[in-house]
Write a structure and sequence with these properties.
The complex is a heterodimer of chains A (567) and B (244). Chain A has 567 residues and is an alpha/beta fold. Chain A has 24 helices and 13 strands. Chain B has 244 residues and is α+β, with helices and mostly antiparallel strands. Classes of the chains: A alpha/beta (567), B alpha+beta (244). Chains A and B meet through helix 1, helix 4, helix 19, helix 20 and helix 21 of A and strand 4, helix 2 and strand 6 of B.
Chain lengths: 567, 244
């Protein structure tokens, strides 16, 4: 009897705590913005207000980079350490700032004026290397992100910052057409017939995801809610596609999200945007207000009697939150830790309800699919649609490009569209798909860009970041940078990923100091096998991609650094 | 469910780990405990190969619910290879822990001299202490930071008024990474000091003062479990219950 009571009681407490954690991140952002840091006193007050223990709150506080637990300087200097900036020698900038201010990374000057921080990616890879002092960006020659022109027609790359501009170019026609369909199932069939695939890297068919959410019943009887989430956590260094869309064409995303919500009967939507993109957050918020004012979202959407509320979720500086289940734990409040699959988000997602999580770029494709019809979409673009790529590094034309999938090779992308190497440098490699992607060498350049074509060669397309590397670049040291990034940004729950990365980083340190031996390379291969085999989530399972592909294709960079007896 | 070629009837809702235990098949694990009512699946030692609907995948046995049409293999060559490297990594984290040495002997694994971690505190971050504190204590400790810098600790790494010094975290730790010092009537744990209380009859160590008075009425005498039984027998009056 006593046991039963305490069991129920503790379950009740757990559930209640989960609901109380709901708005914790909003509140922490507010405290951080007002004071610049979260002190012990403020945390105690917050814990009294929410009824959650301080231990739980500090777990969340220390997990995210945006919050700090100690007082910082008046001006914060953020130096980007992403892959592109590393390839363009950001170490020199860091060293000079460190010498000038007599502080190291993460420290504050004695007079409390400056704090030096190393951040992962500011989404300004075309300007690399970059640093942010206060709110202003600094770079060698700063210019805005440009569209690279191709001979193909741009379907999505159109600038429409305000709702008037968007309506002029035929905006919200897709949503109007979707509402005119007699059944909601027809919208999903339309998307299914277009064969649109998710643009975030996995290439999962969008129509199938929507259909399973449409068919899934709500878990609990009193809440039959379903949710739609736009994933704008573009944490991959070297990738700035979603940033461009959100800043220049925000209504395209909102329209796509509204169609998705209408099709599956979801009344609440979230647009998650990472904290490193403050402009995108602001533009998206004003766009949401504009759309609600004109009746495209909100209560009684376009006179259909369907209610759809949408809000922007501001991220807090965590790469792992780009994983869909970690993103949902972020919105629920708490450490962004991925859940195990199954269950998939389409069955049990946010608050255990069926949830659609789509990438920003995927959602931007939806209005066009509906507006022109599935047949026209698949006919115009060879059945696959178009994909954005962001070119950075040692390439002549840096910026963003839209190309049809399944038509071009990597060689054409870099040497025709990208205009070849910058200042006639010699080509060495490209790094595609962010930190969890692959290195491609000269002989791989004839692979056609497409989901299936890449899979045939055991590669995957990833999120669309392309970093071109010149002959001078040391691939072993670049991989070290990538692995250090992953070691910092892993959630740290499962042992293979956390300790595997720790041992990989220590091995790369040995390689950097030229004291590594042949057995160290074997160790890298063994640990990569373990992380791929036993990790909990996609991040852990893909650590092996950059490590193994760099060892396989650029062994000479490692070979030069290995200490040998005959040397 | 077929486990290692053995047909097994399962109870609805149980995990593969519990089902295997019933069938007499040993799966090594460090972080799982049935009394926690929740599983975390972070040590990954209990990984098994599950074939379902013609597809095989690697899952952790402690957090996967057993289903009738599963074919489970717990001892393939790949699992043994992965477990070998995993044990070497865990051994580097907590060198000299008796439980891990036993597991290494079971799998015939030698420690890898190449894997050496510098800042080691002997903790394998299984999270049992955090769960135990949440359930039986007050949620004073937590898994702080992320990635490779993850540690178990208190907020701001300072003494916290939420901790009552019950030391349940030390009790559930599989590698004895949490230090508790009981000296001179004081207990030192998590940067904090607590006053200890002793049984009023036999003088046995009970617990800390803060912990004792969170669950007991102040009026009753402080007694250990055995003494309180005796006390009740001696002082029992008809129709009167002693709250203790």
């Amino acid at each position: 009897m006593i046991l039963k009571v305490s069991w129920n009681n503790s379950c009740y407490v757990w559930r209640a705590r989960k609901m109380e954690m709901k708005h914790i991140l909003d509140k922490m952002h507010k405290i951080q913005d007002e004071n610049g840091y979260v002190s012990e006193k403020m945390l105690t007050e917050l814990s009294k207000e929410l009824g959650v223990s301080k231990g739980r709150l500090f777990e969340v506080l220390s997990f995210y980079d945006s919050f700090s637990s100690k007082q910082e300087g008046e001006i914060i200097i953020k130096v980007c350490t992403g892959t592109s900036c590393h390839a363009m020698h950001n170490k020199k900038i860091l060293k000079e700032i460190e010498e000038a201010l007599h502080i190291k990374i993460g420290e504050t000057t004695k007079d409390g004026k400056f704090t030096l921080k190393a951040v992962d990616c500011l989404g300004e890879c075309h300007n690399a290397p970059v640093a942010k002092v206060g709110e202003t960006l600094h770079s060698r020659n700063f210019h805005k992100c440009e569209i690279i022109n191709t001979k193909y027609e741009n379907h999505l790359l159109k600038k429409a910052k305000t709702i008037e501009m968007y309506l002029e170019t035929g905006g919200y026609e897709g949503l109007r057409k979707a509402i005119s369909f007699s059944r909601k199932k027809d919208i999903i069939d339309e998307v299914k017939r277009s064969k649109l695939k998710g643009r975030s890297g996995s290439g999962f068919p969008v129509g199938l995801k929507w259909e399973s959410v449409y068919n899934a019943p709500g878990r609990e009887l009193n809440t039959k809610d379903k949710y739609v989430i736009a994933n704008g956590d573009e944490g991959d260094p070297g990738c700035f596609v979603d940033k461009w869309i959100m800043e220049n064409n925000p209504h395209l995303v909102i329209e796509g999200l509204a169609i998705a919500a209408y099709a599956v009967n979801a009344n609440q939507g979230y647009i998650y945007i990472r904290d490193e993109y403050p402009d995108a957050i602001q533009i998206m918020e004003t766009a949401l207000k504009e759309a609600e004012k004109n009746g495209y979202i909100g209560n009684n959407m376009l006179g259909t009697g369907f209610n759809f509320k949408c809000r922007v979720m501001r991220g807090a500086g965590s790469y792992i939150c780009g994983e869909e289940s970690a993103l949902m734990t972020y919105i629920e409040g708490g450490q962004g830790i991925p859940r195990i699959k199954p269950y998939f988000p389409a069955e049990r997602g946010l608050y255990q309800q069926p949830t659609i999580v789509n990438n920003i770029e995927t959602l931007a494709n939806i209005p066009i699919v509906i507006k022109n019809g599935a047949e026209a979409f698949s006919k115009e673009t060879n059945g696959l649609g178009t994909k954005f790529f962001s070119l950075s590094g040692a390439v002549a034309n840096k910026g963003i490009v839209e190309i049809p999938l399944g038509k071009l090779t990597w060689r054409e992308l870099i040497f025709d569209i990208g205009g070849g190497m910058d200042r006639n440098f010699e080509f060495k490699a490209i790094q595609v798909g962010g930190p969890l992607g692959f290195f491609l060498c000269e002989s791989d350049l004839d692979i056609v860009i497409g989901f299936d074509e890449m899979r045939e060669h055991n590669l995957f397309l990833g999120s669309g970041g392309v970093i071109v590397l010149r002959d001078e670049c040391d691939i072993a040291m670049l991989t070290k940078n990538i692995v250090e990034f992953l070691a910092k940004e892993s959630c740290g729950v499962c042992t293979p990923c956390r300790e595997g990365l720790r041992s990989i980083v220590e091995t790369y340190n040995r390689i950097a100091n030229n004291i590594a031996e042949e057995t160290d390379i074997e160790l890298l291969k063994d640990v990569s096998f373990l992380t791929q085999y036993a990790s909990r989530c996609v991040l852990g399972k893909s650590i092996c991609n950059p490590v193994l592909s760099s060892i396989e294709k650029f062994y000479e960079d490692y070979y030069n650094r290995i200490r040998r007896q005959d040397k | 469910m077929i486990i290692n070629g053995k047909q097994l009837d399962i109870v609805f809702g149980e995990t593969i780990l519990i089902a295997a235990k019933r069938a007499g098949i040993f799966i090594p694990t460090l972080c799982s405990d049935t009394s926690f009512m929740d599983w975390n699946g972070c040590c990954r030692l209990c990984m098994v190969e599950v074939t379902q609907l013609g597809k095989s995948r690697i899952v952790s046995a402690c957090e996967t619910i057993a289903i009738d049409d599963m074919i489970v293999k717990t001892d393939t060559e790949e699992i043994r290879k992965a477990r070998k490297i995993l044990l070497q990594l865990i051994c580097a984290e907590a060198p000299g822990a008796p439980l891990i040495e036993t597991l290494m002997k079971y799998d015939n694994v030698e420690p890898n001299t190449k894997i050496l971690f510098k800042n080691n505190n002997g903790c394998i971050l299984c999270g049992r202490c955090v769960k135990a504190c949440e359930l039986w204590g007050k949620g004073a400790i937590g898994k702080m930071n992320k990635g490779v810098r993850k540690i178990i600790g208190t907020p701001y790494n300072k003494a916290t008024n939420e901790c009552v010094g019950c030391a349940v975290c030390e009790f559930v730790c599989p590698v004895n990474a949490i230090t508790v010092e009981d000296e001179g009537g004081k207990r030192k744990i998590w940067n904090n000091e607590f006053e200890l209380v002793y049984c009023e009859m036999c003088g046995k160590l009970l617990t800390t003062k803060e912990n004792y008075f969170t669950g007991h009425y102040n009026a009753a005498p402080m007694l250990c479990h055995e003494c309180s039984e005796e006390y009740r027998k001696k002082h029992r009056k008809d129709n009167e219950m002693y709250a203790y």
